[in-house]
């Protein structure tokens, strides 16, 4: 049995974030909302410290509840980077919208702590604790603009549907425990291998994956996504679309591969259905949208569907493709939402309609070019970098003899290209609408430039490094 000190060393990244969040909460309580800027940059420092702590030892701690391995390290690095970016980009928005409250960066910090626990969970109990810590912070963030009806509605919808998903997940966990006698991922895998797949375990598996599908916005548990993204403050929607998605997908993959690796034939059917349904519904649902935030919400559903194709392969190559996909997805989505943050009228009020982008290439050519790059990349159009992760997941599916899945996925991606191209057409071929206000943050524009360069053809230079990192992370599960 490992000592508590050894276990604490394994979970040092989460310990840094948790203790830091409590200290910053006290600072904010004494200094008030004027400390928002200071707390935000201190949070970024904590993310950097937690990132450095990822270089520590690997192993299993807390009597099998927690695991630190290459898979969790890769995902945590991506989560902490996304959370740090979401913390920084919110500063101009919060000050402009008169909601500059010190709790925002602290809530992000607590959410990131839960996400770290999620991707390192090796037991159903630690899985649930991490998931709920992240979710509780997210519910508050969704309703952060307490004076706005839309934001309050988004928080309420997210809370009610999230509570329902948690109940479904817990029911699945209870069934799995009842029929295997353990909540440990390794114990569940051993029980399935020794006793076969009983009906009770299959029902439990279905409910567990249903609860996790809610967190990644996979069809048929996607219904909350457009409403929450539209109602939540734009920086919060940016956060929801990146870090929690990465954490939930990592948890989904770990549960499927580690806990139910002996029941691949059963969960693969669920994953394939959810994948194709997400791709098609995400594409079709986005076509009629007039709000850019709702369009990006459906884009998120669509992209999760493509990532699940890699998981359906149930191979190290497939898991590596999922990790590669999520990395590029975060950059594309983060860049798109930062562009949305620049959409505001001359008085500084947010503008979210796609129609307001009309003629943007003539009024704000730089912003139009950046958003066009992100749209083309999300559509997976070569030579932009968004094409490569799609190629990887399709390649993994073909290698696993899932050729029909790959073919349908490729065909469905054509539907998705339509609404991305519609945005580009609006910016470059329609008559100019009322001009937006000037950019108010050099840091945000620098982040747009950085993510834009990453998803441009220059991103292909990162393939050797990313491929090696994702392959190493995937091997930790097999």
UniProtKB/TrEMBL annotation:
Residue intervals passing through the bilayer: 12-29, 36-54, 74-92, 104-121, 156-179, 199-224, 236-257, 269-288, 320-341, 366-385, 391-421, 442-463
Pfam family, any one: Proton_antipo_M
Known EC number: 7.1.1.-
Recorded GO MF terms: NADH dehydrogenase (quinone) (non-electrogenic) activity; NADH dehydrogenase (ubiquinone) activity; quinone binding
Domain spans labelled NADH:quinone oxidoreductase/Mrp antiporter transmembrane: 121-416
Bilayer topology term: Multi-pass membrane protein
InterPro entries associated with the record: NADH-Q_OxRdtase_suN/2 (IPR010096), ND/Mrp_TM (IPR001750)
Catalytic reaction(s) noted: a quinone + NADH + 5 H(+)(in) = a quinol + NAD(+) + 4 H(+)(out)
GO cellular component, one term: endomembrane system
GO terms under biological process: ATP synthesis coupled electron transport
First-level EC class: translocase
Chief localisation class: membrane
Top-level taxon of origin: Bacteria
UniProt xrefs under HAMAP family: NDH1_NuoN_1
Record's function text: NDH-1 shuttles electrons from NADH, via FMN and iron-sulfur (Fe-S) centers, to quinones in the respiratory chain. The immediate electron acceptor for the enzyme in this species is believed to be ubiquinone. Couples the redox reaction to proton translocation (for every two electrons transferred, four hydrogen ions are translocated across the cytoplasmic membrane), and thus conserves the redox energy in a proton gradient.
Subunit structure: NDH-1 is composed of 14 different subunits. Subunits NuoA, H, J, K, L, M, N constitute the membrane sector of the complex.
Protein name: NADH-quinone oxidoreductase subunit N
Organism: Tardibacter chloracetimidivorans
Gene name linked to the record: nuoN
């Amino acid at each position: 049995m490992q000592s508590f000190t050894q276990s604490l060393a394994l979970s040092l990244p989460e310990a840094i974030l948790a203790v830091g969040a409590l200290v910053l909460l006290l600072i904010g309580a004494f200094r008030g909302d004027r400390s928002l800027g200071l707390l935000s940059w201190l949070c970024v420092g904590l993310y950097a410290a937690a990132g450095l702590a990822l270089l520590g030892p690997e192993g299993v701690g807390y009597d099998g509840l927690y695991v630190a391995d290459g898979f969790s390290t890769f995902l945590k690095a991506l989560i902490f980077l996304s959370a740090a970016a979401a913390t920084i980009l919110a500063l101009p928005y919060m000050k402009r919208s008169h909601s500059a409250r010190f709790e925002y960066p602290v809530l992000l910090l607590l959410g990131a702590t839960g996400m770290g626990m999620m991707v390192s969970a090796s037991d159903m109990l630690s899985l649930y604790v991490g998931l709920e810590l992240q979710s509780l912070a997210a519910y508050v963030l969704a309703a952060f603009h307490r004076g706005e009806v839309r934001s309050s509605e988004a928080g309420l919808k997210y809370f009610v549907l999230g509570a329902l998903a948690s109940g479904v997940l817990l029911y699945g966990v209870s069934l799995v425990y009842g029929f295997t006698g353990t909540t440990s991922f390794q114990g569940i895998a051993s029980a399935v291998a020794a006793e076969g797949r009983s009906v009770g375990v299959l029902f439990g598996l279905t409910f567990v994956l249903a609860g996790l599908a809610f967190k990644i916005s996979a069809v048929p548990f996607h219904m909350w996504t457009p409403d929450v993204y539209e109602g939540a403050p734009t920086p919060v929607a940016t956060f929801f679309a990146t870090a929690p998605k990465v954490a939930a997908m990592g948890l989904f993959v770990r549960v499927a591969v580690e806990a139910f690796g002996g029941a691949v034939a059963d969960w693969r059917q669920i994953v394939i259905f959810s994948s194709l349904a997400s791709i098609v519904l995400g594409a079709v649902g986005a076509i009629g949208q007039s709000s850019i935030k709702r369009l990006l919400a459906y884009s998120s559903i669509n992209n999760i569907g493509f990532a699940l194709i890699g998981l359906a392969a149930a191979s190290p190559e497939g898991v590596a493709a999922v990790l590669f996909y999520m990395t590029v997805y975060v950059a594309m989505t983060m860049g798109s939402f930062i562009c949305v943050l620049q959409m505001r009228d001359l008085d500084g009020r947010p503008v979210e309609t796609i129609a307001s982008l009309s003629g943007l290439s003539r009024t704000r050519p730089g912003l139009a070019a950046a958003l066009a790059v992100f749209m083309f990349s999300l559509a997976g159009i070569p030579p932009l970098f968004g094409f490569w992760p799609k190629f990887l997941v399709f390649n993994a599916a073909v290698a696993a003899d899932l050729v029909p899945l790959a073919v349908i996925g490729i065909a469905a991606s054509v539907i998705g290209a339509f609404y991305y191209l519609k945005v580009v057409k609006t910016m470059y071929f329609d008559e100019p609408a009322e001009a937006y206000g000037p950019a108010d943050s050099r840091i945000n524009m620098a982040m747009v430039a950085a993510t834009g360069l990453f998803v441009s053809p220059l991103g292909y230079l990162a393939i050797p490094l990313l491929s090696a990192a994702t392959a190493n992370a995937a091997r930790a599960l097999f």
